[in-house]
Amino acid sequence: MTTSPQRTASPAGTDPTGSPQDGGDPTGQRLATGRRQRLANRVRVLRASFRENWALFKRNRIGVVGLVVIAIFAIMAILHPILMDTVWEPERYHPVVGYSAQEVELTVVEEIENPGEEIDLQRAQLRHDPTIQEGETVEDTVQPAPPSLDHPLGTDPLGRDVLSQLMLGAQTAFGMGAVAALTTVIVATFIGSVAAYFRGWVDTVSMRAADFFLLLPPIPFLIFLSAIYDLNMVTLGLVFGLVSGAGSTAIVLKSQALTVAVKPFIDSARVAGASGMQVVLRHVVPNVLPLTFLYMMFTVSGAISAEAILSTFGLIDLPMSWGIMIQTANDAGYILRGVEYWWLLFPAGLAVTFLSFAFYLFGRGMDEVVNPRLRQR
Fold first, then answer.
1. ∠ CA(90), CA(96), CA(97), 5° rounding?
2. Interior CA angle at 80 toward 77 and 85, to 5°?
3. pLDDT tens, 308-329?
């Protein structure tokens, strides 16, 4: 008669072989469960907040229109390097050093009415045959060339593809706008929050500096700076963001921070032993940031317009931008022939207008999201 082996009870937290079990510590399990639960709650709150804010934003149609236009230009900026690597030949479609000569048959005329099909008599005699007469045809390269299947927006006076330039210009606009917006957020939030919390001489000095930047005309100031320093995308974004953030935006955010600085939780944090900067950074700034992001949209709109103006004057060190496209047309003498050579001016000019206006519309749409008073209308 056989007897079965007796099983002995294993200590808590170990398996029958004596090795410790995973998660055997009840306290550690409770802490891990609590962390996961808090994280899940935060994710749930963020999702609910996003759905609520998105519903509010969608009610404002101008904001949705602005977002769609911004998305279109963002797609253009993303697609450009992809097209250059996969579809377009760099020697023909590079926006800076590319060249594409179109050989076309042109009719010799006394006065050009169709630049894509005609050539004036004087130019034909100088470039081809001194004895050529009106009505004859010649083979010539057209630069700037009108839109075609190879170049949907034509080429500029230097034979470079306009569509490729337009897409690279979108990258420049978004890059400089991001630098200016980030600078505005940091400068305006810090100045407004510190002035509202500390009051006294800190408030006085900050607001007098804000008044100075508010009265400072941005474009003439940037033109003056460009005569002293070499401005590029980053430095221009930093300067524009500083002027905007330390001026009007700081004044607006200070008024918002004043309503936060008198809340009971600010007094509780002070009584608990938090320093002034800790209160500002941990309690005042987070409550001001939503309004800061709203004015950030308006800063991007102004920065894009400022870059286009300065680039048109040739005052910025950039490889390509929408303002440089207009400058190239102006230097070649086509600025007053915009209807005849529309592809040299209209694409770049409309791009600056639409993207700047789109960020403004997007900001107006966000105004209803971050402003509780507008939600109740």
1. 60
2. 150
3. 999 988 888 888 999 999 999 9
Task: Give first-to-last CA distance, the chain, whole Å.
Answer: 90
CA-CA distance, 158 to 329, in Å (whole number)? 10
φ/ψ of residue 155, rounded to 5:
-125, 160
Average model confidence (pLDDT) across the chain: 83
Mapped onto helix, strand or coil, the DSSP state of residue 167 is: helix
Structure tokens belonging to residue 147: 């839109």
Rounded CA separation 314/310 (Å): 6
Closest C-alpha among 238, 241, 259 to residue 249: 241
Residue type at 185? V
CB 13 within 8 A of CB 25: yes
Question: For 15, which DSSP code?
Answer: -
State the amino acid at position 51 in one-letter form: R
Token couple for 35: 């962390």
Answer whether 243's CB lies under 8 Å from 221's CB. Answer: yes
Q: What is the pLDDT, as a whole number, of residue 114?
A: 76
For residue 4, is pLDDT > 50?
Answer: no
Model-level pTM? 0.78
Residues with Cβ within 8 Å of residue 104, at least 6 apart in sequence: 116, 117, 139, 140, 141, 142, 145
- The first and second tokens of residue 178, run together, are 């991001």
In which residue are the tokens 């470039």 written?
A: 127
